[in-house]
Amino acid sequence: MNKKAFFAAFLPLILLFSSCSQIKAPELSERLIAEAVGVDLINGEYVISVQALDTGAGGSGEGVDANEKTKIYTFHGITPGSAKGTDDGLIPLYSHARLLILGREAAEKNTARLLDFFLREYNVKSDILIVAAQEKASDVINADTGSAATDAAVTERNLRAGSENGVNVLMPLYRFVNLMLTPGDAAYCPVVAVTDSPVSDKKNIVITGTALFDNEKLLFETDEELTRGILLLTSEAGDMIFTPKGEKGIYTLKTVKSKTKIKPSEKNGRMVFGIKTELICDITEYAQGALDGLTLSDIEETEKAVEKEIAQTENRTLETLFLKNGCDICRFGRRTLLRCPGFYEKYKLSPITLTEYETEV
Questions:
Q1: CB neighbours of 308 closer than 8 A, spacing ≥ 6?
Q2: Fewest 10 Å CB contacts: which of 118, 161, 239, 317?
Q3: Residues of the chain by 3-state class (helix, strand, coil), percent to 5
Q4: Distance CA 226, CA 236 (A)
Q5: Residue 69 above 70 pLDDT?
Q6: How far apart are CA 324 and CA 123, in angstroms?
Q7: Closest to 130 measured CA to CA, from 162, 98, 96, 93
């Protein structure tokens, strides 16, 4: 190979490496570091609200209200992809976001496609928490709780604490998208609302229930009891509290361990699912020595009261979500496909007409 041919062959590599050396990574002050992202659909236009850290605030933040350490950015576009970019030239960085909040109108459209876009194009974390706003997502993004931590951090902490205590569901984005894209499964996530603080001019971000979705959009929201039913049926009860009445007054039973087993079987041309919930609970007052002389019969009566409450809660949850609205939170369809594929192919599992369930505690 002569010198000219050798130089021509390696010239592209020389130009490539010389240009790469000139690439400069953006400074932190040039980044828009998102804490929470809200998505609304208003008059046919997507409105993306971003609560971001104010990287120009500086200092340790000591004694500074969290609202002064964040900025709110609002982007508009006919699609989520066109609703991005800032006037001051900041480069969005969504990988640090804690929450992705769906406004009601946006959630009532093609939610799966919207979230898949955020996961692929905006590069948000796959385990970012998905939340539905009772009204507009921008209301939650703009709420000033007056906390020393950022409002997104406070909301995330409350969601995780509520999940551990058996109060609300907790849904990372990757699991939510998987549920939405799996035929027959029902996706769900917590619902939050903004309320006035009773002691100051600040706002509170409270968890009000659970939002249920089919394979495309929001169906409806549940109340507190149905949320408890979802947590029990999906073995996510955490430290759920029960307060039955016994001989010595009201007892506090704290769940230590819970497990719900669902066994499908085919009987007389129908699918029957046996649902068995097992719980291990501590009686808080007994551990504190406040129930001296507690009898075995009283403990048995307390157990029966809790069993009755759980059975009623699970039955109401299944009747409301599954039988009336077709929300398959227990994944009956998938269980049928795995256990009785012939039945599934023959009837295509019309859950409302061909499925029965039996609960046991």
A1: none
A2: 161
A3: 35, 30, 35
A4: 13
A5: yes
A6: 37
A7: 98
